[in-house]
């Protein structure tokens, strides 16, 4: 199992950022296993090849987000992490 992760800070609420993460996952065809509505700090989605988790928390620098992807294939995990992380940034127009 390979794990890839990436982090960033963003202004806005934890809830707003996680909603954007869920939208990025859904928009890339991932099934949502743990939606924002079930949890106040993370969303989990994926498909038969990869699982992606976005976890957020409030800090004094804004909202901190970590996007983690798990797959048997390192390239698949890396691509999923980048796609979701970049999708969130695109939705926020960073």
Quickly name the level 1 CATH class. Alpha Beta
Based on secondary structure, the structural category is: alpha+beta
If helices are DSSP runs of H or I spanning 4 or more residues, what is the number of helices? 2
Strand content: 35-45%
**How helix-rich are the residues, as a percent range?**
25-40%
Q: CATH homologous superfamily name? A: Alpha-D-phosphohexomutase, C-terminal domain
For the biggest β-sheet, the strand order reads 1-5-4-3-2
- Give a quick account of the main beta sheet: strands, pairing sense, barrel closure: 5 strands, antiparallel
**Radius of gyration, CA atoms, in whole angstroms:** 12 Å
> Number of domains in the coordinates?
1
Q: Could you spell the SSE succession in H and E letters?
A: EHEEEEH
Low-confidence stretches: none
| Average pLDDT rating | 91
Could you please say which CATH topology applies here? Answer: TATA-Binding Protein
The tally of beta strands, per DSSP, is: 5
CATH architecture: 2-Layer Sandwich
What is the terminal separation in angstroms? 31 Å
Q: What does the overall shape look like?
A: globular
């Amino acid at each position: 199992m390979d794990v890839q992760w990436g982090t960033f800070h963003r202004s806005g609420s934890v809830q707003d950022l996680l909603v954007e993460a869920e939208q990025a996952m859904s928009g890339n065809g991932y099934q949502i296993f743990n939606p924002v509505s079930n949890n106040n700090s993370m969303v989990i989605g994926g498909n038969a090849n990869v699982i992606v988790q976005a976890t957020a928390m409030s800090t004094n620098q804004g909202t901190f987000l970590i996007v983690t992807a798990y797959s048997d294939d390192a390239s698949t995990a890396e691509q999923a992490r980048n796609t979701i992380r970049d999708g969130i940034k695109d939705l926020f127009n960073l």
